[in-house]
C-alpha cells in the first residue's frame, strides 16, 4: 500500500494540473444559476395561479385524471399518470408539500434531473483521457518504463478517478445549494419527503412508504448518483484503454449514454434493454417512486446491473492494460 | 567477431544488458527476427540501422513496452519480463522523443518521476538538474521549453533513479550542432563513470563519433557486431574535391589508379549530400593516405585546391557491402 500512495498522488496531481476540475466547477457555476432562474419563474407563475400548494396539487391531480380519461393517450403514459395521481394523493392526504421551495428541494430536484446525462458528462470530462491522453502525448512510455508494475499504474488511475467523481458530486450539491439558496432561502433540511413507493405495473403499493428528512433523502440520492457515476467512469476508463484517441474515447462513451436516455424515453416494449448500463443510471427514480422505464426493474436490479458492468469494465481495462504492447 | 575468448572476457567489465535471440511477430510478420547483443559497463554501444529496420521495436522490448514473441532481455541478470521492477530499476531511458507532461514544470515532472522510484528525494532532483545544467528554467512549465531543453529534462528524468544502463533512442534528432556536441561529451562522461550507454541511430557518422562498439541491424536482424573502427575500416572512404581548375584536376585524378571518380549520382551514397551536390564538386573513393600526396601534386601542377572533404558513406551503402548487394529489404 505504501508504494501505491505516491502513484495515486501522481495521478491526482495530473488531473488537477490539467485543470479538469476547474472546468467542471465553471460549468456548474454557469449552469446552476440558469436552472435557478428557470425554477424561480416557474414558482412565480405557480403563485399567480393560486396561492395555496394544496390547490395546485388538486389541480395537478385533476389534470392527470382528465388525461387518463382520454382515448388518445398511449397506455404506457397512462400507467405513469396513474402512479403519479396515487403519489400526489398520498402527499395531499398527509398534508406534505412535495415541492416546497428551498435550496435543499432545488438541489434534490437538480440531482434528479442531472443523474442520467449531466453528471455522467462531467465524469467523462475527467475519465475519457486517463489512458488515451497518455498515449496521445507519448507520456505512457515514461509511465510504463519505470520500475512499477502496470496494474499499479492503472490502479492509481482508478483511485484518482473515484476521488474526482466523489468531488464532482459533492461540488454539484454544494454549488446548487449555495446558489439556489440566494433566491429560495437555505432552509428545508428537515422537511419530510416520502420514499418507499413500490411501483408494480400501474399501481403503487404505499404500505412501505415512510417519511425521511430531506437531508437524508438528499444523501441517499447523492449516494446512488455516485454509484451510477462510478459505473460511467469505469466504463470510460476501459474505453480509454481500448481506444487510441481521446476524442474517439469521449464520443464512444457519450454515444452510449445518450443511447440509454433515448431508450428510456422509447420505453418498455423491448425488455432486454434493461440490461444496458445506460438505462439503469436513474437510480434516484426508485427513491421518489417514479415508475421505472422498463417493467421488472428495481433498485436492487439496477444496482446489480451497474455493478456487473463496472466489474466487467475493470476486468477488461486491467487485462488489456497490463498485457498490451505500446507501439506508438 | 562478437565472441571473446574466455581469458579475455574475465578482464572485461560486467555485462549490464544481455539480449538473446529476440524475436517479435506482429500480424504474422516477423518485425524483429533474431537480435542478440551485449552491453557492458562503461561502454557506449551503438545500435545502427536505417529507419524501419526495427530499432525502436527492439528498444521497446528492452524496456518492457512490448513483449517479445521469443527470446530474452536481461538487465544486470534480471529478466525484463519476469522481474520488470528489478530490471527496470537499473535502466534510464528515452524512447523516441523525451515525453514529459507539458502542463507541469520541469521540477514537477522530476518529482513525478521520483515518486515512481524508491528513495529518490529532493536532493537527488537538485543533483540531476545541476548535472544537465537546467537550474535556470527548471521551475518553468515544460510547455515553454525548446526541444533541446526537453531533451535535457528527459535525460535528467532518465538519470534520476541512478540507473546503471542508459538507453537513448535517436538522441540527436532535432538537436542543433552545439546540442549534439554537448550530448556527446555528456554521454562520454557518464560512460567514464561506469554507466553502460545504449544509443540508437540511423547515422553512421554519429555512431562513429559517439560509440565504442556497434551492432548493425537491418530488416529485423543483427547483421554484424563489433568495434566501431573495425566497421568503418570496411567502409569505402569517400573524398569530395573542390578544385579551381576542375578539368585539369579530373585528368590528374583519372591517372591515379587507386582513386575512382564517381558519377553525378554519387551524392546519394553520402551522408552529407549537400557537400557532394555543390556545383563543381568531384566525388571520389580512395585510400585516405593518398589524399595528402594528391593535394601536393595538384598544387605543383597549378591546380588550386579550394577544399578536400572526407565524407562518410550512408548506412545504406555500407549495407550493400555487408549484405553483398542484397540491400535493405
From TrEMBL, chain A:
- One MF term in the entry's GO annotations: ABC-type transporter activity
What UniProt keywords apply to this chain's record, in alphabetical order? Membrane, Transmembrane, Transmembrane helix
Highest taxon listed in the record's lineage:
Bacteria
- Give any Pfam family that matches: ABC2_membrane_2
Q: Name the GO cellular-component terms.
A: plasma membrane
Native organism is Paenibacillus sabuli
This chain belongs to the protein called ABC transporter permease
Q: Which residues cross the membrane?
A: 21-40, 110-132, 153-186, 215-243, 255-277, 297-321
Is Transmembrane helix there in the keyword field?
Answer: yes
Amino acid at each position: 500500500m505504501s508504494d501505491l500512495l505516491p502513484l495515486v498522488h501522481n495521478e491526482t496531481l495530473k488531473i488537477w494540473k490539467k485543470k479538469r476540475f476547474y472546468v467542471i466547477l465553471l460549468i456548474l457555476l454557469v449552469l446552476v444559476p440558469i436552472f435557478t432562474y428557470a425554477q424561480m419563474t416557474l414558482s412565480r407563475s405557480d403563485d399567480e395561479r393560486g396561492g395555496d400548494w394544496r390547490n395546485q396539487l388538486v389541480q395537478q391531480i385533476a389534470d392527470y385524471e382528465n388525461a387518463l380519461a382520454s382515448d388518445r393517450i398511449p397506455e404506457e403514459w397512462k400507467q405513469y399518470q396513474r402512479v403519479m395521481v396515487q403519489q400526489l394523493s398520498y402527499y395531499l392526504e398527509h398534508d406534505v408539500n412535495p415541492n416546497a421551495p428551498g435550496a435543499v428541494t432545488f438541489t434534490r430536484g437538480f440531482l434528479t434531473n442531472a443523474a442520467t446525462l449531466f453528471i455522467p458528462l462531467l465524469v467523462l470530462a475527467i475519465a475519457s483521457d486517463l489512458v488515451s491522453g497518455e498515449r496521445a502525448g507519448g507520456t505512457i512510455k515514461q509511465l510504463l518504463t519505470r520500475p512499477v508494475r502496470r496494474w499499479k499504474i492503472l490502479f492509481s488511475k482508478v483511485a484518482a478517478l473515484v476521488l474526482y467523481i466523489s468531488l464532482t458530486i459533492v461540488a454539484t450539491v454544494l454549488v446548487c445549494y449555495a446558489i439556489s439558496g440566494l433566491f429560495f432561502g437555505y432552509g428545508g433540511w428537515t422537511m419530510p419527503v416520502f420514499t418507499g413507493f413500490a411501483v408494480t405495473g400501474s399501481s403503487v403499493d404505499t404500505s412501505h412508504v415512510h417519511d425521511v428528512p430531506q437531508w437524508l433523502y438528499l444523501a441517499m440520492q447523492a449516494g446512488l448518483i455516485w454509484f451510477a457515476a462510478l459505473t460511467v467512469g469505469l466504463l470510460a476508463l476501459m474505453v480509454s484503454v481500448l481506444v487510441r484517441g481521446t476524442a474517439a474515447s469521449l464520443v464512444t462513451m457519450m454515444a452510449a449514454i445518450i443511447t440509454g436516455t433515448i431508450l428510456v424515453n422509447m420505453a418498455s416494449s423491448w425488455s432486454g434493454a434493461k440490461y444496458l448500463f445506460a438505462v439503469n443510471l436513474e437510480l434516484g427514480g426508485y427513491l421518489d417512486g417514479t415508475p421505472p422505464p422498463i417493467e421488472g426493474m428495481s433498485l436492487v436490479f439496477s444496482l446489480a446491473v451497474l455493478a456487473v458492468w463496472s466489474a466487467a469494465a475493470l476486468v477488461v481495462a486491467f487485462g488489456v492494460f497490463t498485457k498490451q504492447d505500446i507501439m506508438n | 567477431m562478437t565472441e571473446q575468448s574466455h581469458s579475455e572476457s574475465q578482464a572485461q567489465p560486467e555485462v549490464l544488458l544481455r539480449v538473446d535471440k529476440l524475436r517479435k511477430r506482429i500480424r504474422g510478420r516477423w518485425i524483429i527476427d533474431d537480435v542478440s547483443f551485449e552491453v557492458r559497463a562503461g561502454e557506449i554501444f551503438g545500435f545502427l540501422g536505417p529507419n524501419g529496420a526495427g530499432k525502436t521495436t527492439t528498444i521497446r522490448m528492452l524496456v518492457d513496452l512490448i513483449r517479445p514473441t521469443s527470446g530474452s532481455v536481461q538487465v544486470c541478470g534480471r529478466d525484463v519480463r519476469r522481474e520488470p521492477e528489478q530490471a527496470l530499476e537499473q535502466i534510464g531511458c528515452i524512447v523516441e522523443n523525451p515525453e514529459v507532461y507539458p502542463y507541469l514544470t520541469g521540477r514537477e515532472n522530476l518529482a513525478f518521476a521520483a515518486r515512481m522510484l524508491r528513495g529518490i528525494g529532493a536532493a537527488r532532483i537538485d543533483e540531476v538538474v545541476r548535472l544537465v545544467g537546467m537550474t535556470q528554467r527548471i521551475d518553468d512549465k515544460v510547455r515553454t521549453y525548446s526541444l533541446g531543453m526537453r531533451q535535457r529534462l528527459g535525460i535528467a528524468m532518465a538519470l534520476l533513479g541512478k540507473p546503471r544502463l542508459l538507453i537513448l533512442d535517436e538522441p540527436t534528432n532535432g538537436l542543433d550542432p552545439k546540442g549534439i556536441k554537448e550530448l556527446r561529451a555528456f554521454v562520454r562522461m557518464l560512460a567514464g563513470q561506469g554507466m553502460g550507454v545504449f544509443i540508437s541511430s540511423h547515422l553512421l557518422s554519429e555512431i562513429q563519433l559517439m560509440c565504442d562498439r556497434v551492432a548493425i541491424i537491418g530488416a529485423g536482424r543483427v547483421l554484424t557486431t563489433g568495434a566501431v573502427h573495425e566497421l568503418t575500416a570496411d567502409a569505402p572512404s569517400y573524398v569530395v574535391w573542390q578544385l579551381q581548375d576542375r578539368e585539369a584536376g579530373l585528368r590528374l585524378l583519372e591517372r591515379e589508379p587507386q582513386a575512382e571518380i564517381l558519377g553525378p549520382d554519387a551524392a546519394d551514397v553520402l551522408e552529407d549530400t549537400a557537400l557532394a551536390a555543390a556545383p563543381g564538386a568531384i566525388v571520389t573513393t580512395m585510400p585516405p593516405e593518398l589524399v595528402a600526396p594528391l593535394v601536393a601534386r595538384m598544387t605543383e601542377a597549378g591546380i588550386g585546391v579550394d577544399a578536400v572533404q572526407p565524407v562518410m558513406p550512408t548506412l545504406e551503402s555500407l549495407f550493400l557491402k555487408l549484405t553483398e548487394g542484397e540491400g535493405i529489404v
